[in-house]
Amino acid sequence: MRVTEQGKGSERVDAIAQSWFWLINEILPDALLIPVPNNLTLARKLVNRFQINAVILSGGNDWGSIQERDKVEIFLLESVLEHSWPLLGVCRGMQALNIFFGGRLETHLSNHTKCSHAGTNHRVNITGNLNMNCPPCIDVNSYHDQGVIETGVSKELNIFAVSDDGIIEGISHPEKQIMGIQWHPERYSSVMNIDRVLIMELFSNSQENN
């Protein structure tokens, strides 16, 4: 979850957008979204005590800026591999996925493109590496300054989506149900068809095993 500071005393808060609950309920009505606190001890207890079937790494915060969140998300990624859970990484979540598998993160995309990827919309091209029924290109939102370029993608992951200016927008594991996207599916007023397809395909088996 995103870490923010609120109030006069700068109270540290774990937060998740309400739209995430709407999105998951809209696509997977039988699923229950359980927020994981950015506390490694509590995260371990939660994973051990609850029947977890899949993991979502959401956006917010630059990688490396919130130590407790980084540690929890590394633990969740390790748990995904241990239990063979499906995982979707969104924005920062995609970047965390790439780093976990040995890839590299660019902290200033302005060094690689003249196009802004913060608070804008742009086109994304879907490559042949995605084994799903998706259109060849889509328009997506974009809310990130950090990102991944082709030479920084983990050798263990495949690229399936690239922006017109060469920024990686989608990666997936060739053998496991692990996927990352750079755009935010929860920030639309209605579900985009590609997000519905991706999430249903990725998490369908986890619901069957629930």
Topology of this protein?
Blueprint: E1 2-6, E2 11-15, H1 18-27, H2 40-49, E3 55-57, H3 67-83, E4 87-90, H4 92-100, E5 118-126, E6 137-143, E7 158-163, E8 168-172, E9 178-181, H5 193-208
Parallel strand pairs: 3-4, 4-9
Antiparallel strand pairs: 1-2, 5-6, 5-7, 7-8, 8-9
Helix pairs in contact: 2-3
Task: Explain this structure.
The protein has 210 residues and is of the alpha+beta class. Helix content is 30%, strand content 23%. The chain has 5 helices and 9 strands, in the order ββααβαβαβββββα. The strands form 2 sheets. Strands 3-4-9-8-7-5-6 form a 7-stranded mixed sheet, with helices on both faces. Strand 3 (55-57), helix 3 and strand 4 (87-90) form a beta-alpha-beta unit. Helix 2 packs parallel to helix 3 (67-83). It is globular and about 40 Å long. It starts with a strand and ends with a helix.
Index terms:
210 residues, seven-stranded mixed sheet, 5 helices, 9 strands
Number of strands: 9
How much β-strand is present in the residues?
15-25%
Approximate helicity band: 25-40%
Contiguous helical run count: 5
Q: How would you state the average pLDDT, rounded?
A: 91
The biggest sheet amounts to: 7 strands, mixed
Adjacency order of strands in the biggest sheet: 3-4-9-8-7-5-6
Cα Rg: 16 Å
**Element-level helix/strand string:** EEHHEHEHEEEEEH
Tell me, briefly, the overall form. Answer: globular
Short overview:
It is built from five helices and nine strands. It has helices at 18-27, 40-49, 67-83, 92-100, 193-208; strands at 2-6, 11-15, 55-57, 87-90, 118-126, 137-143, 158-163, 168-172, 178-181. β8 and β9 (178-181) form a beta hairpin.
